[in-house]
């Protein structure tokens, strides 16, 4: 028996990077995955990769901030397999600037993807989860469900040039703790993982091939100054940044039965900053 056999997991932003690794890790233990990405191509790549391992998976492509997306995301799980057992709110991006140069749009856009979108997804899942929990209680069955919201060490310690991202990632911890109080009676564990430096395309050195992401017509450059990357790695107790697979491992810990008595917590996955 795998630890997550038959569990239904929604993983936003799972077309690439950490999200893809989370989807693969959960699937390796038997979970059925609803894949999501802003773009069709990476979502399809993850879907095919999952299915090649024998995992059950479906796609729900689209922006997590679109009106109606949250309901469609949850409905994809419910209509295909049933009530979600695991929700990982992972989708996001950074759009950095110092505060005097940061626009209202820039600030709000980052709050929307990292805070408002997870709130909407959890709100959309509330009805199915409540009804399932009531049925299970009436049948004298104890089934735990798992919510893992992705935060960041920027939300814990702050980070220059990231007033928007730091604010959003701090706020998601507040949402996590509020929902752990609301949903404890339904046997839902709600926790958060704060990543430090994890090597993905969003944290590649800026002097490598230039990369950007297209968000609603804005070409947003991604990457970090090489000197900043090297300094950050040297500050870690483990002496380096993490891999996407290692980041996925931290999320996995909060999705397995061994974490059934852990809720409302923030786990730092930062190599010992």
Which helices and strands occur, and which strands form pairs?
Elements: E1 8-11, H1 17-28, E2 32-35, H2 40-52, E3 57-59, H3 69-80, E4 86-89, H4 104-138, E5 145-152, H5 153-157, H6 163-183, E6 188-195, E7 211-215, E8 218-222, H7 226-235, H8 244-253, E9 266-269
Parallel strand pairs: 1-2, 1-4, 2-3, 4-5, 5-6, 6-9
Antiparallel strand pairs: 7-8
Please give a quick description of this structure.
By secondary structure, the protein is of the alpha/beta class. The chain is built from eight helices and nine strands.
Relevant terms:
273 residues; alpha/beta; seven-stranded parallel sheet; two-stranded antiparallel ribbon; 9 strands
Task: Kindly describe this structure.
The chain has eight helices and nine strands. It is an alpha/beta fold and 273 residues long. The model has no long low-confidence stretch (mean pLDDT 93). β2, α2 (40-52) and β3 form a beta-alpha-beta unit. It has a seven-stranded parallel beta sheet, with helices on both faces. The protein has a single domain (8-200, 242-269), classed as 3-Layer(aba) Sandwich (Rossmann fold). α3 runs parallel beside α4 (104-138).
């Amino acid at each position: 028996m795998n630890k997550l056999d038959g569990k239904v997991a929604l993983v936003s932003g799972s077309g690439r990077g950490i999200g893809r690794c989370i989807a693969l890790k959960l699937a390796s233990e038997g979970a059925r995955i609803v894949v999501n990405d802003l773009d069709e191509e990476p979502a399809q790549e993850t879907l095919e990769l999952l299915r090649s391992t024998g995992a059950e998976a479906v796609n729900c492509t689209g922006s997590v901030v679109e009106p109606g997306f949250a309901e469609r995301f949850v409905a994809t799980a419910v209509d295909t397999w049933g009530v979600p057992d695991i929700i990982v709110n992972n989708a996001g991006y950074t759009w950095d600037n110092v505060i005097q140069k940061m626009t209202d749009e820039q600030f709000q856009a980052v709050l929307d993807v990292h805070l408002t979108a997870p709130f909407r997804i959890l709100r959309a899942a509330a009805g199915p989860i409540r009804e399932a929990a009531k049925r299970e209680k009436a049948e004298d069955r104890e089934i735990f469900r798992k919510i893992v919201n992705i935060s960041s060490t920027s939300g814990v310690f702050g980070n220059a040039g990231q007033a928007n991202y730091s604010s959003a990632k701090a706020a998601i911890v507040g949402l996590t703790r509020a929902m752990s109080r609301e949903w404890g009676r339904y046997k839902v564990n709600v926790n958060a993982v704060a990543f430090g430096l994890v090597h993905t395309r969003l944290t590649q050195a800026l002097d490598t091939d230039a990369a950007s992401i297209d968000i609603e017509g804005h070409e947003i450059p991604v990457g970090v100054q090489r000197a900043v990357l090297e300094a950050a790695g040297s500050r870690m107790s483990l002496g380096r940044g993490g891999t996407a697979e290692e980041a996925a491992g931290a999320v996995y810990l909060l999705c397995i039965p061994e974490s059934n008595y852990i809720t409302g917590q923030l786990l730092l996955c930062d190599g010992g900053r």
